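Researcher: We plan to redesign the surface later, but first we want a full-length starting point. Tokens attached.
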């Protein structure tokens, strides 16, 4: 069985299973003294799509603050808030219940000639251009092109994911949010963010529009119902060949019931779970915990 056939079988209606997941994502910031003001954005609300239904979602802030939600340019839901009373700690908790499954939508596949056409390049130009986090050197692109051979666009995405997966080792703590694709590639290790950046950079360089997906992953394929486990923020990729296709290059699996999507963008910089500015004493760091429970 080829990799493409295996992927098709994994997402066939006969084997499709939807999971109901509860995710609790808590970020705790510590400061060396009272902070006078802070301005913040949280991207902690999962999307609604054909693959995924968000049944319930809330963002809680301590100390209490007035918040409002909006959709950003890339379609992600953002919870924005600011605080103007002194506080030495800030806790932001996103709690969601989501039903997720594989993407069973079918679409017509384009050939390479159509993908290089003006219409595609104009509509998807932002997902074809390199960014500082995703730019890939020519020699790495050439090696990936050799690995693809005469593959059609429909097969090129999984092959690029396999190419990156074979070269890079997942190693927690080996990089940070500022590490770019080539730094991670040269070290041959990184986290899901780095592996996704490298994959996206190669897909774009080869002519496939590609975007970064931010979300969560239940770590156990055989997840037991009712058992809370330590989950993780996760990242994967999507590429366009007439329609969008998702794949998790870190784990070398199609997107399915264990994946919960938060948002999409050109790279991590467009979809950080949390970012903000504050006025006051220095930060003493922050801690992040993600707890995932399969409910059904």
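Model: Full-length starting sequence:
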């Amino acid at each position: 069985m080829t990799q493409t056939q295996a992927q098709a079988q994994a997402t066939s209606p006969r084997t499709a299973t939807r999971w109901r997941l509860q995710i609790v994502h808590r970020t705790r910031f510590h400061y060396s003294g009272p902070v006078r003001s802070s301005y913040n954005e949280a991207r902690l609300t999962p999307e609604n799509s054909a693959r995924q239904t968000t049944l319930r979602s809330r963002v809680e802030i301590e100390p209490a603050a007035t918040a409002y939600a909006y959709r950003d340019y890339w379609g992600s839901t953002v919870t924005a808030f600011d605080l103007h009373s002194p506080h030495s700690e800030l806790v932001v908790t996103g709690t969601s219940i989501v039903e997720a499954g594989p993407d069973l939508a079918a679409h017509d596949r384009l050939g390479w000639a159509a993908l290089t056409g003006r219409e595609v390049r104009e509509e998807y130009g932002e997902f074809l251009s390199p960014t500082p986090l995703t730019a890939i050197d020519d020699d790495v692109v050439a090696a990936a092109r050799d690995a693809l051979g005469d593959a059609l666009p429909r097969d090129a995405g999984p092959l690029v994911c396999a190419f990156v997966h074979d070269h890079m080792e997942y190693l927690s703590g080996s990089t940070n949010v500022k590490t770019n694709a080539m730094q991670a590639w040269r070290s041959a290790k990184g986290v899901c963010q780095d592996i996704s950046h490298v994959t996206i950079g190669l897909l774009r360089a080869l002519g496939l529009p590609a975007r970064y997906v931010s979300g969560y992953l239940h770590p156990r394929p055989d997840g037991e119902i009712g058992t809370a486990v330590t989950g993780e923020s996760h990242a994967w990729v999507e590429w366009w060949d007439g329609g969008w296709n998702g794949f998790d290059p870190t784990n070398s699996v199609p997107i399915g019931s264990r994946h919960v999507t938060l948002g999409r963008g050109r790279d991590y910089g467009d979809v950080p779970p949390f970012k903000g500015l504050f006025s006051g004493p220095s930060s003493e760091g922050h801690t992040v915990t993600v707890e995932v429970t399969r409910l059904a």
